[in-house]
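> example.struct
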């Protein structure tokens, strides 16, 4: 009897939590969302949805729903796309990239290739981060305590200094692909070289840093 009661209690709690999560999505419908829907509605091409891992499963479900409601759609696995399947994307298509973290390597390699082909990319993750920070500031990453009382005029150079290194890495990786210096599969090595250069420039290229990087990499790929 207790088992049956616990099952019902847990199932009810899960459904109520999921219903609340769906209800909260209404807070994220803004002008950018409207613009994305209009782009899809007015497009003469198809909607191509891509992702990796669990995002790929979600992408397949989105494609199935769009096709069943009359919007021509297809699924493209991001890993397959950067290894030869990108030809299925045409200039009139709209591409939706799904990524929970926004740092999926295959997606980061795929984006410049899509832009190069003239496709319009709906940056869902960027929109999600912006909307979350705007509508629910308490969920945005907080400033470090030492920066809370820094004047705005002094804070902006610090933000720029923190912003430039990742921009340098992104430009190096994407530039190496766009200009033919490396293939998408080799771009990771280019990024690693760029990271070493940044560490050297900031005086942090030492055995302790390299040991930590190797340890993190081993845990990630194991």
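> example.seq
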């Amino acid at each position: 009897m207790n088992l049956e009661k616990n099952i019902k209690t847990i199932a009810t709690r899960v459904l109520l939590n999921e219903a609340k999560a769906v209800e909260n999505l209404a807070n994220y419908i803004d002008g950018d969302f409207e613009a994305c829907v209009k782009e899809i509605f007015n497009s003469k091409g198809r909607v191509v949805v891509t992702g990796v891992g669990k995002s790929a499963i979600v992408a397949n479900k989105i494609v199935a729903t769009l096709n069943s409601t009359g919007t021509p759609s297809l699924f493209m696995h991001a890993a397959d796309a950067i290894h030869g399947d990108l030809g299925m994307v045409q200039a009139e298509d709209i591409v939706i990239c799904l990524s929970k973290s926004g740092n999926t390597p295959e997606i980061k390699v795929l984006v410049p290739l899509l832009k190069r082909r003239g496709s319009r990319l709906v940056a869902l993750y960027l929109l999600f981060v912006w909307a979350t920070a705007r509508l629910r500031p308490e969920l945005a990453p907080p400033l470090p305590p030492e920066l809370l009382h820094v004047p705005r005029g002094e804070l902006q150079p610090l933000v720029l200094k923190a912003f430039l290194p990742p921009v340098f890495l992104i430009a190096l990786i994407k530039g190496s692909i766009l200009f033919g210096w490396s293939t998408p599969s080799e771009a990771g090595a280019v990024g690693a070289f760029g990271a070493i250069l940044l560490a050297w420039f900031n005086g942090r290229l030492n055995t302790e840093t390299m040991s930590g990087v190797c340890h993190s990499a081993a845990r990630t790929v194991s």
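> remarks
The radius of gyration is 22 Å.
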